[in-house]
């Protein structure tokens, strides 16, 4: 069977044809024609570059490659998958290109933000650092063996010739320049469509003022030295760190307008995509809440409310502890500590092994908070009846307690409510 031959056109040839008018169209008419074909919001064309593993390894350790932008996933590949990646490089098996967005700092130095390929780069880097081996039949070979490595005598280090060969292996990279943050996050979102991302990882990739602020809160209160990442027993993998703070903010912001919000992925994503900036006074109060949580967890005088429990702090607990502290910010720290302990003890007693983000736990937690806000020393907290303040589909409903609302109101929303009531009066 003969294979058909097609004419070959170079890009220069096609551009020349366009300039000569072979594909001439009435551009002015197209601009006014809603049915005309056009590409909207196109990104600048990327460049394609090849880097050796040695070059990429050097750039990672020099800080010229950022593997951890706010929206990026944690390292989730198990060692077996990292070993397979190294094996693919050895055997010249194709691996997908790494995607970078290149920025210049104030000094004109370039930094590459890894939008796609963090797991691949981390696997390569860990191999070169002697943290994962290359497995060959019955032997495991290490690129380098640290002096104090356990079982060093039984490990095989690669010969220099093999090391040089691996350092010369080439990885294809795609580089974008002059992109705004929103476009950078959009690339991440699209290239991850084939990946299994957690809901939290998807939320973290959303570009909005609220996402940026929540990331700031993470860096300031969780991942700082001696921060909540170290002081609390909780899970922070796969974006749950971001989700924990987001849930807390979501509940507290609802509290300011008298809403008992319950965890709902659809409502939370809608909340996160808001284009308005967080209110400065609200931001200040959230900062105070996170500082209070840190003080309660860090100070031995008060940390019973966290340390006396064997269970990890569940995401729903962290959010409602924040809502409790938000509702009683004028109280003393010792009073807050007792209230937090009572809240956690009651939740775990009533929902043993079932402390999850759902309507049942959420409605009970709001009822407990309302009691503790009025009577911080209360100990007998009762699970409310099945009549819930939140509808079955997760939509927000106002609290039935007239005394539930805090004194603080989001100024923008309060103004809207006043205007709405006036229009009804007319």
Automatic annotation (TrEMBL):
Biased composition (Basic and acidic residues): 398-410
Pfam families, per the entry: GmrSD_N
UniProt domain GmrSD restriction endonucleases N-terminal: residue ranges: 59-201
Record field: transmembrane: none
Coiled coil location: none
Ranges of biased composition (kind: Basic residues): 411-426
Residue segments, region Disordered: 379-426
Stored PANTHER family: CHROMOSOME 16, WHOLE GENOME SHOTGUN SEQUENCE, DUF262 DOMAIN-CONTAINING PROTEIN
Protein name (record): GmrSD restriction endonucleases N-terminal domain-containing protein
Organism expressing this protein natively: Coprinopsis marcescibilis (Agaric fungus)
Lineage: Eukaryota, Fungi, Dikarya, Basidiomycota, Agaricomycotina
């Amino acid at each position: 069977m003969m294979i058909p031959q097609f004419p070959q056109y170079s890009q220069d040839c096609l551009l020349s044809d366009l300039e000569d008018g072979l594909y001439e169209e009435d551009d002015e008419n197209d601009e006014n024609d809603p049915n005309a074909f056009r590409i909207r919001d196109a990104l600048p064309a990327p460049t394609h570059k090849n880097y050796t593993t040695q070059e990429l390894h050097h750039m990672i350790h020099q800080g010229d490659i950022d593997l951890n932008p706010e929206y990026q996933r944690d390292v989730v590949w198990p060692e077996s998958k990292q070993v397979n990646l190294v094996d693919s490089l050895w055997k010249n098996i194709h691996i997908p290109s790494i995607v970078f967005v290149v920025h210049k700092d104030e000094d004109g130095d370039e930094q590459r933000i890894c939008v796609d390929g963090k797991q691949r780069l981390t696997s390569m880097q860990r191999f070169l650092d002697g943290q994962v081996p290359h497995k060959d039949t019955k032997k495991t070979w290490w690129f380098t063996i640290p002096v104090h490595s356990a079982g060093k005598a039984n490990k095989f280090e690669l010969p220099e010739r093999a090391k040089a060969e691996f350092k010369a292996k080439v990885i294809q990279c795609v580089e974008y320049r002059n992109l705004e943050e929103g476009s950078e996050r959009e690339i991440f979102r699209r290239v991850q469509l084939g990946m299994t991302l957690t809901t939290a990882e998807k939320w973290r990739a959303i570009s909005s003022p609220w996402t940026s602020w929540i990331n700031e809160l993470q860096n300031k209160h969780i991942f700082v030295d001696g921060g909540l990442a170290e002081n609390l027993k909780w899970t922070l993998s796969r974006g749950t760190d971001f989700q924990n703070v987001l849930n807390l903010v979501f509940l507290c912001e609802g509290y300011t307008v008298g809403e008992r919000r319950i965890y709902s992925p659809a409502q939370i994503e809608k909340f996160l995509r808001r284009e308005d900036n967080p209110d400065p006074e609200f931001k200040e109060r959230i900062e105070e809440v996170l500082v209070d949580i840190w003080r309660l967890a860090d100070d031995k005088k008060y940390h019973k409310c966290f340390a006396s429990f064997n269970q990890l702090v569940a995401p729903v607990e962290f959010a409602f502890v924040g809502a409790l502290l938000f509702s009683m910010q004028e109280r003393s720290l010792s009073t807050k500590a007792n209230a937090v302990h009572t809240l956690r003890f009651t939740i775990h007693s009533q929902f043993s092994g079932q402390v999850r983000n759902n309507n049942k736990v959420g409605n009970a937690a709001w009822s407990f908070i309302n009691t503790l806000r009025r009577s911080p020393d209360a100990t007998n907290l009762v699970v409310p009846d099945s009549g819930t303040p939140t509808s079955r589909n997760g939509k927000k409903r106002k609290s039935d307690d007239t005394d539930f609302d805090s004194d603080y109101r989001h100024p923008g929303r309060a103004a809207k409510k006043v205007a709405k009531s006036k229009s009804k009066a007319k």
